[in-house]
Design the sequence.
């Protein structure tokens, strides 16, 4: 009887050791499973957060692109509304007819170019954000648009100089020569297909638009 009890005690001791090991293994497995679930959830949350961030950044960039495109279209309209070029009484005082006409045109284009610059300014901040979050791709895609913007602004500047009756005629003649070697982009073509400048600007906008819309997916 005592032998049976001795064997039973020995078996129980072994059994306890086995259960202890199994408990440790199960506990470790539980910790590992919890850790995996935690990391998986964190990774999912990060993906969702990045997706939301990308969507918001691309949405903001698209709105800024459309405003910039519309500002360029407005800047190249051949006709001007009265509020664009209207002079105050003080500004018009003492001016000849030719001088008044020129100053009105200058003022109108200054306002249009200012609207165009204002539409472009927030884009530069967005480009910094895009470089930090994505890479330099968006900045590079915008370069053709900024180049066309500079071309247009320079053409307007040269045109205003050549038409200014207060400028020396020899200087105006030199600027006319410079202007003659440039393509005429002061006004957008009324043709349905637009002019070369309009087509280039629209094409560059479309490339940026496609890139940003892909980021929203």
Sequence:
């Amino acid at each position: 009887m005592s032998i049976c009890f001795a064997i039973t005690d020995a078996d129980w001791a072994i059994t306890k050791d086995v259960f202890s090991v199994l408990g440790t293994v199960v506990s470790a497995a539980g910790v590992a499973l919890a850790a995996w679930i935690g990391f998986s959830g964190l990774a999912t949350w990060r993906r969702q957060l990045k997706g939301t961030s990308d969507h918001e950044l691309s949405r903001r960039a698209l709105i800024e692109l459309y405003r910039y495109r519309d500002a360029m279209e407005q800047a190249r309209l051949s006709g001007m509304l009265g509020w664009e070029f209207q002079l105050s009484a003080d500004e018009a005082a003492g001016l000849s007819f030719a001088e008044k006409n020129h100053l009105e045109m200058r003022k109108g284009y200054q306002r249009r170019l200012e609207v165009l610059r204002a539409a472009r300014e927030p884009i530069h901040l967005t480009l910094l954000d895009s470089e930090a979050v994505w890479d330099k791709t968006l900045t590079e895609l915008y370069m053709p648009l900024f180049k066309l913007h500079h071309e247009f602004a320079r053409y307007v500047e040269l045109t205003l100089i050549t038409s200014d009756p207060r400028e020396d005629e020899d200087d105006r003649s030199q600027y006319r020569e410079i202007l003659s070697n440039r393509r005429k982009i002061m006004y957008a073509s009324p043709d349905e297909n637009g002019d070369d400048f309009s087509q280039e600007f629209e094409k560059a906008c479309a490339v940026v638009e496609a890139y940003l819309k892909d980021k929203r997916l």
